[in-house]
Amino acid sequence: MHAKCLMKILNLENITVCYNSLLSGYALKSRVKDVVVLFCEMRGLGVEINGVTMLGLVQPCGIPGNLGLGMCVHGFCVKFGLDMDSSVGNCLLTMYVKSGENDCGRKLFNEMPRKGLITWNAMINGYAQNGLANNVLELYKEMESKGVCPDPLTLVGVLSSCAHLGALSAGNLEGILRVRMLMRERKLKKDPGCSYVEFKGRIHLFFAGDRNHPQINEIYKKLNELENLVKDLDGCKKNDHERREEYLNSMGVHSEKLAVAFALLNTRKETEIIIIKNLRICGDCHLFIKMVSKIVDRQFVVRDATRFHHFKNGFCSCKEYW
Ligand SMILES: [Zn+2]
Ligand SMILES: [Zn+2]
């Protein structure tokens, strides 16, 4: 039966819309086989294919193991002239990078006439997930030069790659500072907490609960030692069990504490330690750094999202007002 007859019988104005909703439903449930059968039926009946149809077809191809099918679907997209549709293109791109096919993804990326934020994010995060840090930074620079505003997802890709590299060059750092500023302006909350400290001309970046740094074991050891000293001085409320839990559940360790431990491990007594933190410092870390400044007799400067904190001999310049 031809689609037009079917439409007449069912009194439907647009059968494509009906088929598309059914197709999207299958796609959402990752019912790949049903998606393909339905698509073949659409073709057989001469139902018009549009961008939404293709989206329904591409989505389940992002699941690992479906790349072969995905490539066929890509072929169909080209045949119907829908491969340059932004949503379809983004979906195909995501499919390629998720399958680790970065070169295919990049080829498509380069060909896409309209690259939106989703397109840039898909490619940047694709590189990031495959550990290609240099490609991430290069693409991020290109994105900035094109005047595309990054969002938290972009930042996650860029920062995770930088952490992977272990260091940032000054140019990238500047870029990241700008991202952070933009994000603060837009009051975006997904910004992951991170702190960095400069040592011998290299920037060391730490995320909350980070385990990526080459010295990470020494850092956690040092941190535990410091926490115990602080506890002795403070007559702390936390018991050992709680502290141990916190130590093991490293997600609880804020990035500035890791940066403090790292700096103490690597710098000489007379060096002032400067730590930059993207978010506002929390009360616990503030107290911790105050105590540590007294215990180890060192000075720390922490620049958080709102102000400078100069820690010296158990006190902070902000006088607890921040
Ligand atoms: Zn904190
Ligand atoms: Zn302070």
Automatic annotation (TrEMBL):
Annotated ranges, domain DYW: 245-322
Keyword field: Repeat
Pfam families, A to Z: DYW_deaminase, Eplus_motif, PPR, PPR_2
Highest taxon of the lineage: Eukaryota
UniProt-listed PROSITE patterns: PPR
Entry annotated with the keyword Repeat: yes
InterPro entries recorded: DYW_dom, E2_motif, PPR_At4g14850-like_plant, PPR_rpt, TPR-like_helical_dom_sf
PPR repeats: 15-49, 116-150
Keyword Transferase attributed: no
Similarity section: Belongs to the PPR family. PCMP-H subfamily.
UniProt-recorded name of the protein: DYW domain-containing protein
Organism, as annotated: Salix suchowensis
